[in-house]
């Protein structure tokens, strides 16, 4: 089979599913076929397992000459003039970019319902959400359209949709992957990562996108080892931690059972599992919404109707341009974050909110350090419940925010974490979360491979 044939089949399937699932903002038929043709002409390097494979990219990761909207009216017609670092790397490895996936507007949300382009549906049950914000990236993989996609995770946006759609999603260590070309939400929290059907594929794709990039000063120069090196290796003697807060109030009974079953599997494989405590995790969500929104309020200042993106018409003054453009261009959830963030950073409230949240962050980091003195990795649920109905949580933002209670602490601490399918509830998938030490993705993948 040629790459062109594979890409054509993939495009046909995506296009026939699109009306129902709405996983894509843009399907790049012409670009993908041109890339496929070029790869067919020069031939595939057999050592490169990803060469010629179609992959989808979340629509907040910029792609040269291909519309990138962040699912916002603000960027509805925005075509970037450069590629994000991760996109450069995919292209250099002959990975075919098939299109740009739907998401919550500017990655703010947990269900893909805040998209300007309408919600994406969960392929397991079309009346349910796929999670978010990387819901399109999760749906396209889960529906079998592509083997892999890229998402971004600021507070859970790769892991929670992976959990809701029964696939593998990884948020790498903060700094592992360059954020150059990722439309910034919370710069100290954002990471790009892969969504795949298997643990091994996930490790291999992370190997392609990871590494130091001088254009992102927070990207790390830690060596990029073979992340799949320990896949399938024996877990005998490994010490696993299970935080008691991760099985507390508000966690669905089937979700709890799946995690306890996973703990038994690890024990059978020769590991020990200890109950531990994360005493400050209960403050995680509050600290995240202050820090994440503060950073967002600053990052989103650039959308002013002057430089690029949407510009309101019929304006009378410069101030009018700003106010009307931002009022019309941003959706409600984005406005909510900007207001919350601006408030937390304002002179009179900085100490009470932003500074306090930053202090909580340090306490959380220390909780994890304590656990990792004695343990190799941590397990818990990814999300408190399986996927919920479309529309069920849109009325109350704080209910939606609680979806990420178990994923947010890892963004605040910068740790690598994975969600992988580990059970079912009423026919809907349940995700298990595996958390490792900073830059120890190898152990995370080794632990995950126990489930394949
Ligand atoms: N659901 C969380 C939020 O709305 C996380 C989003 C994300 O990780 N991008 O902020």
TrEMBL record:
One GO term describing the cellular component: glutamyl-tRNA(Gln) amidotransferase complex
Recorded GO MF terms: ATP binding; glutaminyl-tRNA synthase (glutamine-hydrolyzing) activity; transferase activity
Domain of life the protein comes from: Bacteria
Alphabetical UniProt keywords: ATP-binding, Ligase, Nucleotide-binding, Protein biosynthesis, Transferase
All copies of domain Amidase, residue ranges: 5-443
Catalytic activity: L-glutamyl-tRNA(Gln) + L-glutamine + ATP + H2O = L-glutaminyl-tRNA(Gln) + L-glutamate + ADP + phosphate + H(+)
Active-site residues per Swiss-Prot or TrEMBL entry: 58, 133, 157
Tagged with keyword Oxidoreductase: no
Entry's Gene Ontology BP terms: translation
Keyword presence, Nucleotide-binding: yes
Matching Pfam families: Amidase
This enzyme's EC code(s): 6.3.5.7
InterPro entries for the chain: Amidase, Amidase_CS, Amidase_dom, AS_sf, GatA
Subunit structure, as described in the record: Heterotrimer of A, B and C subunits.
Family: Belongs to the amidase family. GatA subfamily.
Protein task: Allows the formation of correctly charged Gln-tRNA(Gln) through the transamidation of misacylated Glu-tRNA(Gln) in organisms which lack glutaminyl-tRNA synthetase. The reaction takes place in the presence of glutamine and ATP through an activated gamma-phospho-Glu-tRNA(Gln).
PANTHER family in UniProt: GLUTAMYL-TRNA(GLN) AMIDOTRANSFERASE SUBUNIT A, TRANSAMIDASE
Protein name per the record: Glutamyl-tRNA(Gln) amidotransferase subunit A
Natural source organism: Pediococcus argentinicus
């Amino acid at each position: 089979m040629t790459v062109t044939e594979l890409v054509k089949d993939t495009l046909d399937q995506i296009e026939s599913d699109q009306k129902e699932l709405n996983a894509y903002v843009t399907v790049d038929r012409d670009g993908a076929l041109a890339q496929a043709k070029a790869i067919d002409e020069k031939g595939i390097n057999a050592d490169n397992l990803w060469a010629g494979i179609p992959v989808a990219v979340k629509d907040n990761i910029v792609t040269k000459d291909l519309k990138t909207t962040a699912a916002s009216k603000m960027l509805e017609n925005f075509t970037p003039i450069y590629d994000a670092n991760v996109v450069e790397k995919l292209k250099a490895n002959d990975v075919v970019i098939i299109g740009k996936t739907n998401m919550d507007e500017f990655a703010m949300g947990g269900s893909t319902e805040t998209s300007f382009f309408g919600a994406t549906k969960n392929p397991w049950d079309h009346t349910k959400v796929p999670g978010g914000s990387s819901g399109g990236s999760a749906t396209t993989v889960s529906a079998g359209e592509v083997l892999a996609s890229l998402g971004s995770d600021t507070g859970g946006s790769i892991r929670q949709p992976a959990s809701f759609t029964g696939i593998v999603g990884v948020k790498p260590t903060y700094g592992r992957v360059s954020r150059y070309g990722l439309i910034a939400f919370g710069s100290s929290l954002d990471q790009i990562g892969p969504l795949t059907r298997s643990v091994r594929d996930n490790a291999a794709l992370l190997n392609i996108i990871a590494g130091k990039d001088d254009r992102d000063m927070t990207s790390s120069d830690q060596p990029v080892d073979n992340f799949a090196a320990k896949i399938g290796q024996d877990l005998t003697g490994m010490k696993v931690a299970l935080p008691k807060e991760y099985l507390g109030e508000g966690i669905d009974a089937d979700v709890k059972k799946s995690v306890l079953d996973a703990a038994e599997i690890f024990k059978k494989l020769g590991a020990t599992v200890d109950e531990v405590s994360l005493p400050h995790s209960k403050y995680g969500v509050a600290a995240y919404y202050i820090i994440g929104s503060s950073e967002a309020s600053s990052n989103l200042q650039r959308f002013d109707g002057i430089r690029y993106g949407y510009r309101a018409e019929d304006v009378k003054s410069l101030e009018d341009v700003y106010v009307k453009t931002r009022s019309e261009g941003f959706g409600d959830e984005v406005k909510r974050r900007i207001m919350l963030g601006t408030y937390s950073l304002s002179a009179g409230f900085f100490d009470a909110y932003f500074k306090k949240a930053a202090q909580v962050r340090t306490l959380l980091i220390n909780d994890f350090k304590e656990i990792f003195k004695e343990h190799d990795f941590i397990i818990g649920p990814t999300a408190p419940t399986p996927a919920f109905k479309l529309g069920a949580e849109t009325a109350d933002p704080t209910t939606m925010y609680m979806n990420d209670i178990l994923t947010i602490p890892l963004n605040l601490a910068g740790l690598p974490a994975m969600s992988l399918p580990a059970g079912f509830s009423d026919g809907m998938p349940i995700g298990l979360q595996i958390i490792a030490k900073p830059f120890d993705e190898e152990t995370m993948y080794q632990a995950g491979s126990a489930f394949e």
